[in-house]
Amino acid sequence: MSRSGDRHLAVVGCKDRYAGRKGQIMKIMLCCNAGMSTSLLVQKMQKEVAARGEEVAIEARPMNEAMDHINEADVILLGPQIGYAKGDFEKAVEGRIPVAVIPMVDYGRMDAAKILDDVKKMLG
């Protein structure tokens, strides 16, 4: 949560990584300890994407698998329970891919619309 009290995914840099890729499907990877709780969120996000008429590929992976697939994603979102690993993910992607921790309130509410809106803001 930002100091102003707004809940947003905070990412430094990488805003233009997705710019200029019109027509390509954005890929979002959600990560948590075992991939189960994020799987529920992925389902809600997929329904929201369909309702918006957008094309976004969203997948959930457990943290131990995610590192093997980080270069397949345009955005990596971490569940709040593994927020401590954000630095490890940022180091692994070397600034090529935005990494963010989903705010606990958004995660707990499974607020797919808010999370997708935040991803769009991250990517500009």
Query: What are the segments in which pLDDT stays under 50 over at least 5 consecutive residues?
Result: 1-20
Structural class: alpha/beta
* Fraction of helical residues: 25-40%
Kindly estimate the percentage of residues that lie in beta strands according to DSSP. Answer: 15-25%
* Helix-strand pattern: EHEHEHEHH
Total beta strands: 4
Overall 3D form: globular
The profile of the biggest β sheet is: 4 strands, parallel
Placed side by side, the strands forming the largest sheet appear as 2-1-3-4
The averaged pLDDT comes out at 83
Radius of gyration: 13 Å
Distance between the termini: 20 Å
Number of helical segments with 4 or more residues: 5
Overall description:
The protein is of the alpha/beta class. It has helices at residues 36-52, 63-66, 86-93, 104-109, 112-123; strands spanning 26-32, 56-62, 75-78, 99-101. Strands 2-1-3-4 form a four-stranded parallel beta sheet, with helices on both faces. Strand 3, helix 3 (86-93) and strand 4 form a beta-alpha-beta unit. Helix 1 (36-52) crosses helix 5.
